[in-house]
Amino acid sequence: MLDKHRSAITQSKTRPRRWFRAGEGRTAFFFLLPGLIGILLFLVLPIFASIALSFTDWQLLGTPHFVGFANYTRLFTADPQFWTVLRNTVFFTVEYLILNIVVSLGLATWISSLKFGQRWFRGIFFLPTFTPLIAVAIVWMLIFTSGGLFDSLMERLSLPFSGVLNSQTLAMQAVILTSIWAGVGYNTVLFNAALDMVPASYLEAARIDGATAWDRFWKIRLPLISPTLFFGTVMTAITSLQVFDQIFVMTKGGPGSATATLGYAIYQRGFQNFQMGYASAIAWVMFALIMALTALQFWFQRKWVHYDN
Amino acid sequence: MAKLTIRNVIKRYGALEVLHGVSVAAQDGEFVVLVGPSGCGKSTLLRMIAGLESISDGEIEIGDRVVNDLEPNERDIAMVFQTYALYPHMTVRDNMAFSLKLARRSRQEIEQKVDDAAGILDLTALLDRYPRQLSGGQRQRVAMGRAIVRNPAVFLFDEPLSNLDAKLRVQMRTEIKTLHQRLGTTMVYVTHDQMEAMTMADRIVVMHGGGIEQVGPPLQIYDEPANSFVAGFIGSPSMNFIDGLVVERGGTAELQTEEGVHWPLPESARAYLGQSVRLGIRPEHIAVGPDGVQARVNIVEPTGSDTHLQLQVGSQSIIAAVRDRPSVSVGQPVPLRIDANKVHLFDLASGKRLH
Amino acid sequence: MTTKSKAKARRRLVLDVINHAALAIVAVAFLFPFFWMVSNAVRSNAEVMAIPVRILPKVFEWGNFVAAWTRLPFGRFFLNSAIIAVCVTAITVVVSCLSGYAFARLKFKGRETLLLGYIGTLMVPPLMLIIPLFLIINRLGMVNTFPGVILPISFGTFGAFLMRQFFLSIPMELEEAARIDGASRLRILIGIIVPLSMPAIGLLSLFTFMGQWNNFLWPLIVMTGADNATLPVGLTMFQTQQGTQWNYLMAGATLSMLPGIFLAIILQKLIYNSIALNAGMGGR
């Protein structure tokens, strides 16, 4: 009662002391300014520009005309290539994502079972991550080229796979294999680190409870690293939907449109045909696809990802 | 050196008021200890003096200047943090010199001051080490050295000993006290440890729930606690409290509990005849007598010098601290004597000390 | 030890050796493309395409590295790549530290909202911005210039977020001690916070640098002049209408991979720790 009374009195004579906050606010403003200018100019502005562009027929030269949803309707109804491109992208992403996660998790688990040289093995599988994807793709192109190493290997083994880069069905498999080699290292190290972080006491407790090595992996370690596994899956999915470099080098989207993906289509339409409006519409379809896939994964995570808290 | 005056200081976080108009002053050269349980606002008050928290209302004056609107470095204070806050990437020397460098003092002056401070604190041999290479006590001394080089008007200590082990804590307590005697600077020291407060302070400020309960020299606080909170907080083991009615029996005043136990009271307690009060008696003022209130021994805790007895009187638990080593065993009934002249009486409702 | 437990220990040892050896074989197989690249870099172009395929060249033509280097302005490509990667990294680190500090330690109106906005932009795929960014650069007359290629990719929000997270882990008392010592905010950031944040700054620098060193599409689009090409773009120039000069291409690819491989080996520990940091934060 007395306190209330007292604070009521003091409240009335409170002087403005906003300097304390204002000083910090001003400092914060100057600290944020360089980043904010860059972000407004090179991130926010382009996003809006991209939306606007996708409703025009701009060809770089000349003036843009507003065409409404024409670009989008053309994509889904008139463009004979687009459905192929969309299918290729989804096909690549699904196969690449599954293989990447399975292989990297397998390697990570295998490495974590070693007593010696863990870091060397991690280092080896990580190496391609730090090399230019373009260079990697060039090396694999040499391996897969007609009459190259892969073909002679297939001949030796009497298997009917040759000239894969010219094959409607196999070219994509070659691109995926290359991508796996280039990209599996990051997730391997990521998952290996997560496995390392599982406290030994859990595994020891499980052993005392009579769990076999198999049980310990599937029932203890895997659930415990599931948040990391989920993180790796989401990030890998987002990058794989944007695949471009390997395809630019190895197949140029061919043969025909067998390996043309959304990323390659954006490049082709935008920077070879200079159809800036049309390419922007494709970019937004890609964005929608990324959002949809990410949302799907977040939806499914409730079923398999285990969080501590 | 300067006087520190705190006038009606209030701290609010949004609608929540955590300090309700605190007023206290430290004389020039005085060692003032703010003590209280966690959450009582003592650290907040110290941080407001330092300028690390804004002042919602009221005034803080250092020397003759109101420092409310000054930046921390303009207040002529130095602070020793609980975690020491030594810059991990700087040597001891650089840690101590940092504030002087920022103030653009000359190289010679900086060197001189750092060397002097290092001499005082016995840090000369450690000047080129990094904090991680030092022991807890050494880090503590560096933190003080960093404060000394600034030659501040007021030293602020925020629970500086709580990260040290028990033995080192006692040793550092002495060192800080010695330092105070040597420098003669005003010091404000925050702790939750009443023992530190008792041993170090010229004056203790007992805080509780965002306000001040009592201000005074250590022994005055101990002997004449303003209320039952202070009485219970200061002293270890804590004061025993027994509620009851003041009655007259056989010509003397006594406290009669609900269970019908009678405790002796001093003659002067007659003034409260017929009133319900809370009796407070410190453990060292209870003895195992040849006769007295019947109790049963629950636990015997020898500390070496003293023996703490946990006793049961009816449903009431009582702690006695006796100097000698009584030959009692658990479960044994013993008679208790209390020194009626050392008894405190508190008002049941307000907790204020009556006697 | 009993004979039984001895036998058990021996069996475990054998299994361990087999386990290590098997993964070693997998690892060697994994490294094969690197070997194949170098092996083809040092043979004549005719031998590259010769049938049957030879694992090692008949004649080692080490001169191919020099030839590849001089055939195209490879030194120039190297320099271009280095300039772009270093500048992008420097700007990213400075801007990220400044913004990260503001988000971690300064109170201002709308801080949480702005931070949420920053995190939100992480969802935007870079490929989507390529077209409008090119048009902006075009409008500013910066096509085929270094500022034109560097500036648009130097302001990612990830760095600010990363630095904020790291700064939050630095004890507040250090900063308060520095304020009492009389340090300004900028001084605190440069003198106290940054030196203590080297692990995070190292991680941000390393991954930004490698990302840009390996970047292909953006420099391909902006650097239209042949002399301004970066290393990955330059490599594609060995594929001409007349055919592919495989041996030079492999030599160039080898050279382009060297800095990354070098960094991956010497900074092994930093890379592992930083990815581990990611694993720890992942999904949390």
UniProtKB/TrEMBL annotation, chain A:
Keywords: Cell membrane, Membrane, Transmembrane, Transmembrane helix, Transport. Residues 86-297 form the ABC transmembrane type-1 domain. InterPro entries: ABC_transporter_permease, MetI-like, MetI-like_sf. The chain crosses the membrane at residues 27-55, 90-112, 124-150, 170-195, 224-244, 281-300. Pfam families: BPD_transp_1. Belongs to the binding-protein-dependent transport system permease family. GO terms for cellular component: plasma membrane. This is ABC transporter substrate-binding protein. GO terms for biological process: transmembrane transport. It is a multi-pass membrane protein. The keyword Repeat does not apply. It is found in: Cell membrane. Gene3D superfamilies: MetI-like. It comes from the Bacteria. The keyword Lipoprotein does not apply.
From TrEMBL, chain B:
GO terms for cellular component: ATP-binding cassette (ABC) transporter complex, substrate-binding subunit-containing. Its main location: membrane. Residues 4-234 form the ABC transporter domain. Keywords: ATP-binding, Nucleotide-binding, Transport. One of its GO terms (molecular function) is ABC-type transporter activity. It is a peripheral membrane protein. SUPFAM superfamilies: MOP-like (SSF50331), P-loop containing nucleoside triphosphate hydrolases (SSF52540). GO terms for biological process: carbohydrate transport. Gene3D superfamilies: 2.40.50.100, Nucleic acid-binding proteins, P-loop containing nucleotide triphosphate hydrolases. InterPro entries: AAA+_ATPase, ABC_transporter-like_ATP-bd, ABC_transporter-like_CS, ABC_transpr_MalK-like, ABC_transpr_MalK/UgpC-like, Mo/tungstate-bd_C_term_dom, NA-bd_OB-fold, OB_MalK-like. It is found in: Cell inner membrane. It comes from the Bacteria. Belongs to the ABC transporter superfamily. This is Glycerol-3-phosphate ABC transporter ATP-binding protein.
UniProtKB/TrEMBL annotation, chain C:
Its main location: membrane. Residues 78-267 form the ABC transmembrane type-1 domain. The keyword DNA repair does not apply. It is found in: Cell membrane. PROSITE patterns: ABC_TM1. Keywords: Cell membrane, Membrane, Transmembrane, Transmembrane helix, Transport. GO terms for cellular component: plasma membrane. It comes from the Bacteria. This is ABC transporter permease.
